[in-house]
Amino acid sequence: MNTWAGLGLCLASFQLVAVEITPWLQIAAKGEAGYTTVRQQPNSLRPWWQEGTGQLATAHSGWMIGPQLASIHITPDSDFSATVNGQWQQIPDHAFGLTEYWLNYAPLPISGYRLRARAGWFYPAMSLENSDVAWSSPYSSSFSAINSWIGEELRSQGLELSLSRPGNAFNSANSFTAVAGGFRGNDPIGTLISWRGFAIHANQTNLNRDIEFAYYPSLMVPPLNWQPNWVKPFVEIDDRIGYYLGLHWLWQQQTELRFYFYDNNADPLAFAEEQYAWHTKFSHLAWHQQLNERWQLVAQWMNGNTEMGPSAVNMDFNLWFLLANYQLDDWQFSARFDHWQQMDRDTTPLDDNNGKGEGLTASVQYQWTPEISVQLEWVLIDTSQQSRGQWQHWPIDRKFGQSSLLLVWRLPE
Q1: What is 3-410's CATH topology?
Q2: CB distance 58 to 38 below 8 Å
Q3: Model-level pTM?
């Protein structure tokens, strides 16, 4: 038996051990494994989580086990329900952890309007790309640069309220939802993109994890010498409440727009647990268009600013992507183009945070069985990151590329 056949039988066996689901308990799960070929990079360009400046998650070719994801939904016969999302990761630490958990309140509609509330740790519903199990993507293994960063550094510990006007309750083709959330525990967001820049990968940060990055020379001298070369993205530092506001519009199940404004309201002068609070705010727009039964488009755009210290770091950022997806019987084809840019607004010596990049991702998936699919994916990014120039002879401009052949499994529905 060859290696791929053995791996396929191993992954297919997951359906045999799935527990029987009760009417009030649903479990969804998904994972991937395969072989990745990476364009070899010098030591300085190993991934950020290995204290390098690379913007892909792997630096060497070989067999890889991707994130193994699980989502548990508890839906008793009441207005309350609960969701817990977790994962096992090979990168960075071969560890299991939770990515989200929340309690949901959804009473019966009042005059057609629906009120919803949830409390806990969760992603605001900004992404229209990450719509699969436990905030993964159905289109590709890797996420866009926007959602790669959201998965790394953005999570809300708080309360969210939403009010919906479903079109079917008002004999209308238009549905609207207004969203408002208040949260704590996301004060250091902005750290990674300020020095490393944006990246493309499939890693979500567990709620109790910190993320390492390169020990830049500018972090060794004032005014940045208190900043370590790691970030705990989900800690509370200044005891201030952040917020976000959102508006969703859906037309005939074909066109969907989601607009959000996010402001963590952090005090950039606050410092605790070896972490600065970063005042990070941005506007975000997501769009999904179902063109016909085979073609669909997904796009997101983000524009914002992050600031730390007395203007020790002050950086604007702007990025977007466009994804096209085509489905034909058991085949699925996706292509995504990413663009991002960071604009340094501070005057801190020897700490240039300017950067830009473009990424191209192509994915082909074949549904082998209802539980197993085969996926071939290529990722190429072309980046310019001025922070790499803090070391002599380190390349500011660099291309990164990888290709992956994966088996993707999911529990039977």
Answers
A1: Porin (2.40.160)
A2: yes
A3: 0.93
